[in-house]
Amino acid sequence: MAIDRLPESLVKRASTISLSEENKFILGILSDFKVQNEIFLQYSFRLLAIIW
């Protein structure tokens, strides 16, 4: 008997209840980071083009 292993339904319910707001916050941070990363990649490619 694995006592440390929780039932999947309980885990899913707990994650949807407690992490819904945190997920929105984290997704917002990740989307901002993605935008900044794309801008950084564009600038780095431009710098490489200038160097070449």
Please provide the ordered H/E string of secondary-structure elements.
HH
Summed up, the domain count is: 1
Shape field:
elongated
Count of helical segments?
2
> Radius of gyration from the CA trace?
20 Å
Low-confidence parts, pLDDT < 50 over ≥5 residues? Answer: none
Residue share in helix: over 70%
- Gap between N and C termini: 63 Å
Protein described:
By secondary structure, this protein is an all-alpha fold. It has one domain. Helix content is 83%, strand content 0%. The chain is built from two helices and no strands.
Briefly, what is this?
The protein is elongated. By secondary structure, the chain is mainly α.
Topology record:
Blueprint (H helix, E strand, L loop, with lengths): L7 H11 L1 H32 L1
For this entry, give a set of tags.
52 residues; mainly alpha; 2 helices; 83% helix; elongated
